[in-house]
Design brief:
30 strands; globular; alpha/beta; 574 residues; 2 domains; TIM Barrel
Length: 574
């Protein structure tokens, strides 16, 4: 502390002085002219006349606190942790609250241990460019209606949360169990409270008495709000509302309508799920900031939503501001409209500059726990056969550009159901963790795919294989390709087939970012040529069709689930 004070009083030189920058003050909403002095990774002064071992010329640009993502599933990028850091740091990201829900559903807690170790191995001058604070997933499995690779109950949650590995409890998606007072779920939440660790939320459409009950459980956040009214009610009940800017879903425009000069400190930014292509081309939280400002939120309200508001929400001491006594995580941007990042500093170390990471991202930590995770019983074309008894059958209709589906019906002739030449596709979820042989079968209306099948081993939240097609033989071949690759994305079409392996838990690739982007783009373009409509992301929309915590109708390896009933419904009505 004396060293820091001596530097602040100009008795001794600092390690770093950033000069000639305009400094945004998150506490006042104003710009300051001056210098920022850093010693031992801590900001010691904002002022003038400081000397340091290193001087950095801000060239009149704007200096912001390091950008934070309040809720992300890193696995959704399909990148290794090392590669992910290399993409996000140049976009100004210095910290994230990460819920490793995806890999823990596949590999158990060993999946989280893998992520933490991989992130810690990426360093620049002894500093990790991005602080990754892992939360223990709260819903493994997410619901009782699916088969996952792991199960973490109340007792396990108490034990695991006590470890330094976990910063808090991940999003509590099972909100019906919370408001229903189910003992095992409440035990998880109480364990976090006893350890003074935060609890994240997931509460689409929750209002009134149900919201009161959910908030009474001490749940901090929600990233599923869809209307300004819903945002305001959740803030009024003491929650932080997360404005989401992801690849599969975002609610920025609607959330922006709820932000005002009084409540803006209760909003925080997150990405939730963002793929490699979007991270590379659009950016990370810098992308969320520019979209929020374009939606009408003043920059002086938006910037705290990516910095100090998140620090306040999660009680991150000394994070989120360019001010004395704060950690020297800083980002230099051209302006507060486009937020083009020029440089990123982590604990006073320049870790990225002009869109390029200044640290090595080529190393790969790949323990046995995250390899060879696709284990299935063999399937044939007959495995995907559906027989009609003449009754109405349910189908999922996906609402364009959302994660939501609605229930619709069709009545096929009695006998084997054929979908070729109709606006229907078959949908299958194949269990891939325990070789149970479970296959959930259903139908999707209006997706557009014709002449084959596509499939993926990323499927929220239990990550079984999801396959869609109009040909049973092609669907079985897709499953074989995915099993042989250890997971991935696959397409079988007239005259050929294509597969891109995801060798890390069937969720991520150890390949460089450029290869991941090129090959995922190529296979998605193949699916487009098979007829998938522009309203849907060919593979990423599939990823959410087995997620039964988002309305209305979803398919798991055990059958169709209707969220309103929070239970199974038959494919065919009698």
């Amino acid at each position: 502390m004396k060293q820091l004070i001596d530097c602040a009083m100009k008795r001794t030189p600092c390690d770093l002085v950033i000069k000639n920058a305009r400094i945004f003050n998150v506490f006042t909403g104003e710009m300051e002219e001056g210098e920022v002095a850093v010693k031992n990774g801590t900001i010691v002064a904002v002022g003038k006349g400081y000397e340091g071992a290193t001087s950095y010329d801000g060239e009149g640009k704007i200096l912001l606190p390091g950008l934070i993502d309040s809720h992300i599933h890193v696995e959704s990028s399909m990148l290794s942790p090392e590669t992910w850091v290399g993409l996000c740091s140049p976009h100004g990201t210095t910290a994230v609250i990460a819920d490793p829900h995806e890999i823990v559903n596949v590999c158990g807690v060993e999946g989280a241990e893998y992520l933490k170790e991989a992130f810690l191995r990426v360093k620049k001058d002894g500093v990790c460019p991005v602080d990754v604070m892992l939360e223990l997933p709260s819903c493994i499995p997410a619901t009782p209606f699916e088969t996952s690779g792991a199960s973490i109950g109340g007792a396990e949650t108490e034990r695991e949360l006590a470890r330094d590995l976990f910063f808090g409890l991940g999003e509590m998606m099972n909100f019906p169990a919370v408001i229903g007072g189910e003992e095992d779920v409440l035990k998880k939440i109480e364990a976090a409270h006893m350890l003074r660790k935060p609890v994240d939320g997931h509460a689409p459409g929750l209002t009134g008495d149900a919201l009161n009950a959910y908030r009474t459980a001490g749940i901090l956040t929600d990233h599923e709000s869809l209307t300004p009214e819903e945002c305001r009610e959740k803030i009024a009940r003491g929650m932080f509302v997360q404005a989401r800017c992801g690849s599969s879903a975002e609610n920025l425009a609607d959330v922006a309508k709820a932000v005002d000069a009084f409540n803006f400190r209760r909003f925080v930014l997150c990405s939730d799920d963002k793929n490699a292509k979007d991270l590379s081309e659009r950016g990370h939280i810098d992308d969320a900031l520019r979209r929020l400002v374009r939606a009408g939120v003043p920059a002086k309200f938006a910037i705290p939503m990516a910095t100090v508001n998140i620090a306040d929400c999660y009680r991150l001491q000394g994070v989120g501001a360019v001010a004395p006594g704060y950690i020297a995580d800083m980002v230099l941007v051209d302006d507060v409209e486009d937020f083009h990042v020029r440089a990123t500093f982590k604990r006073g170390v320049l870790v990225s500059r002009e869109g390029r990471a200044l640290f090595d991202t080529k190393g790969r930590y790949l323990p046995a726990a995250v390899k060879s995770t696709v284990r299935i019983k063999p399937v044939t074309a007959e495995s995907f056969s559906v027989i009609s008894h003449g009754g109405r059958m349910r189908a999922l209709e996906i609402l364009p550009h959302t994660l939501f589906t609605r229930e619709t019906f069709f009545t096929p002739p009695a006998g084997k159901v054929e979908v070729k030449g109709t606006d229907l596709c078959k949908l299958a979820v194949v269990e891939r963790h325990r070789e149970t042989g479970n296959i959930g079968l259903g139908f999707v209306k209006g997706y557009g795919l014709r002449g084959g099948a596509i499939g993926i081993s990323v499927a929220h939240d239990s990550h079984n294989l999801v396959v869609l097609g109009d040909d049973d033989g092609a669907m079985s071949r897709v499953v074989a390709l995915l099993a042989g690759a250890g997971g991935g994305m696959a397409a079988v079409f007239e005259g050929g087939e294509e597969v891109f392996p995801l060798d890390i838990a069937g969720l991520m690739s150890s390949a460089p970012a450029e290869e991941v982007i090129a090959r995922t783009s190529a296979i998605q373009e193949r699916a487009r040529r098979m007829g998938v409509k522009e309203d849907y992301s060919p593979f990423m929309t599939l990823v959410f069709l087995s997620l039964p915590v988002i309305p209305e109708l979803k398919l798991t390896d055990r059958g169709l689930v209707e969220l309103a009933k929070f239970g199974f419904v038959p494919l065919e009505e009698k």
